[in-house]
Amino acid sequence: MLLLIFFSCKKDDTNNIDIPIKDLSEQYIIENDSIIQFMKTHFYNYDDFSNLSSTKSPEIIFDSIIGDNLNKTPIYDQVSTLQISVKDANDNDVNHNLYYHIIREGIGDNPTVADSVFVSYKGLLFDGSSFDSRKNPIWMEAKNLIRGFQEFLPLLKKGDVKVNNDGTYDFIDFGIGFVIFPSGLGYYQSGSVNIPAYSPLIFQVNMMTLNRTDHDNDSVLTIDEDLDGDHNFNNDDTDSDNIPNYLDNDDDGDGILTINEYDKNSDGIADDSDGDGIPDYLDLD
Predict the structure, then answer these.
(1) What tens digit of pLDDT does each residue of 137-150 get?
(2) Same domain, 194 and 226
(3) Residues 31, 99: contact at Cβ < 8 Å?
(4) What φ, ψ does residue 176 adopt, rounded to 5°?
(5) Is the pLDDT of residue 31 over 80?
(6) Which of these three, 196, 211, 226, is where a domain ends?
(7) Domain count across the chain
């Protein structure tokens, strides 16, 4: 299923006005200030997540700290920060803060930014409106998601799976959390029917389970095909054949399939026959 929020940035067809592209550094400062202001003046329904059943997760709700809510703990006092570098139009790095809170860590493995994940989620704007949600979990490819969502996933752990006598199953103690990030980690100037341009986004995510990915079935996990570690899997192309390594079954273009030269002695370590520090599957020599 192609999801509007993750795979399509289609603009509202009722508005043909082109959205101007703003300076990334300046826009980040504006949005980061608005995020901090939002977090200082709002709380989430953390009481609903106390004494939580191992198989349940309430929907997250944000509200203003006013009136009867004056004693509530602001989001600002609960979140942690992850800094992520984003390239601007001139290929300069602009650091972006991603704010997140882990409500329940989970008990299994963490996904990577390349893995397939089985998640339920809810996406919100600062006005409280939900632009997308999935109460029933769906499979998604982390590497295809918007950057802020993608980078948040490895901070959660999957749960356990319990198979019931009737053939149904439950996920137990899965990871739960939420993330807030600026539009530079989302859709930036690209608008849609439900998401205005330059909108910071909020996601609640429930991490049910995951699958490790090896897209070209060459025995090298997709996450390990990201040689420069920038989480962009399309710019790693060792043999310059215009096929990124994660889709290339012969990464160095020497005529020997990667699967046949990665680990001949099956010791779990990539072979380097000539000891030059370059694994055989990436070494033409």
Answers:
(1) 999 999 999 999 99
(2) no
(3) no
(4) -135, 135
(5) yes
(6) 211
(7) 2
